[in-house]
């Protein structure tokens, strides 16, 4: 209905046009069969109206200038913006729909105000659980007032991302991380920047400060050259997401996976802000990895990988994940595993990863709030089932604790337990 | 994935409804059917159309022109041969198109913005009526009107196969 980025414009007859065409032809037939001119006179406007509608409005796909921004705090997500059109497109003939991104709930109906050239909109959504999801572009099309013809509208809106995660994750980056190589100074960073050890010489930019110019090299080369340095990093962290399906069913799995993605996004953003190196690994059938790195580019890489991540339908064995991790990441890197621990297969991932040399902290989004809320909300039997489910969950976590500390993430809007665990002194390299 | 549609919904009793009712009543008055039955058909068709237009479910709502079309078609088929009845029928068709543009789910003043949509058919009806009724050989009205209608169908088939005439861009429907 609306084109984004490219311009594959379309002209469509609407179903009502076909209705008028059909009725017109039937009336012509009836008028000739009776014979009576009156049905023919009724047929004339019915047959001409769609053709006249095609002559109305813009002759090609109109262009919409989309300007929108995201706001709101906590669980509230507010999107406001405008759609601007140029003559001869009348904004009152524009049909616009705003799809609600998956995981969000409309808090109030969309508020849309329009004049001849502009459509102003305000969308109010709520995030019941933490999530990271892009806002889909609005579905925009031009339709004549009688709804007989339709043209696509060309638009290229800037990408909006809804990021809602527990508040504690904003400060989790201040946690001191161990270096992957124990001795100070041995961490070879791929990042280059304005401080740290000398890295090399490069062409100077026009705004280069004089202190950074390598004057000796400049005199030899005859053009401005500047020094470049390695950046000191505070440490490394690896975020590992278990994307394999569990026995909980696709709906619960999808919800828990969405929570894991939101947590991974929050953790990576916070550590990258603190100039740590962050790696990401998503394990489904095979391992998809974003190797350790820092900076804005890494932020974009991780964001792209998280948005592209999907649950797999063919789960791989846990050992494969552990083996593949060693190909991408050095042993000893602090590893935050996001897994529901819903069944044996997901719980087995922890010892395999640990035995390969990765000290693991498990952040486990609990399925119980989702299951209990949807299925066993009340009644004596419901309470009993809830208690048994909690006991089973506790038992599973206790079993996993033998290999790695586990944070049972039951209240999805707080991860204080994880922050506290990471702050605990001597947690790395001591066998937990 | 659900979608939130924008815009305030107005009453389905728009400003074009009285005009449509008067046109339908005029056609019913001219009909050879018993007057009560003709008025009943007109009233039932319009009432059903307005009722369907107010329904919340879009799929059901999209059928709102059908009862009005059926009523107008039945009354047109029962109209006597003559200048005034066929003019009423033609005007009824034009008013029906204007009523389509008066969509309560779209911004107001649709018939004004969609002037071309009903003005061009009105012109077509006017030419057809004038040529069939005002020309000396008025007995040939059926032939003239039929010829115009057939020409319109042929033109329609031609244009439907070539949406590029309306649009410089590629079509998806044909």
Care to describe what's here?
The complex is a heterodimer of chains A (432) and B (174). With 432 residues, chain A is an alpha/beta fold. Chain A has 4 domains: 11-56; 63-163, Immunoglobulin-like, CATH 2.60.40; 168-176 and 235-423, Rossmann fold (3-Layer(aba) Sandwich); 192-232, no CATH class. Chain A has 10 helices and 19 strands. In chain A, the strands form 4 sheets. In chain A, strands 1, 2, 3, 4, 5, 6, 7, 9 and 10 form a 9-stranded mixed sheet that branches. Chain A has a 6-stranded mixed sheet with strand order 16-15-14-17-18-19, sandwiched between helices. In chain A, a hairpin with a 3-residue loop joins strand 6 (105-114) and strand 7. In chain A, helix 1 (15-33) runs antiparallel to helix 2, helix 4 runs antiparallel to helix 5 and helix 6 (318-328) packs parallel to helix 7. Chain A starts with a strand and ends in a 9-residue tail after the last helix. Chain B has 174 residues and is an all-alpha fold. Chain B has 2 domains: 14-81; 106-174. Helices cover 65% and strands 2% of the residues of chain B. Chain B has helices spanning 16-30, 35-53, 58-61, 65-77, 83-101, 110-113, 115-133, 141-160, and one strand spanning 3-5. The radius of gyration of chain B is 18 Å and the shape is globular. Mean pLDDT of chain B is 81; it is low at 1-6. Chains A and B meet through strand 2, helix 1, helix 2, strand 5 and strand 6 of A and strand 1, helix 4, helix 5, helix 6 and helix 7 of B. Strand 5 of chain A pairs antiparallel with strand 1 (3-5) of chain B.
Q: What's this, in brief?
A:
The complex is a heterodimer of chains A (432) and B (174). With 432 residues, chain A is α/β, with parallel strands linked by helices.
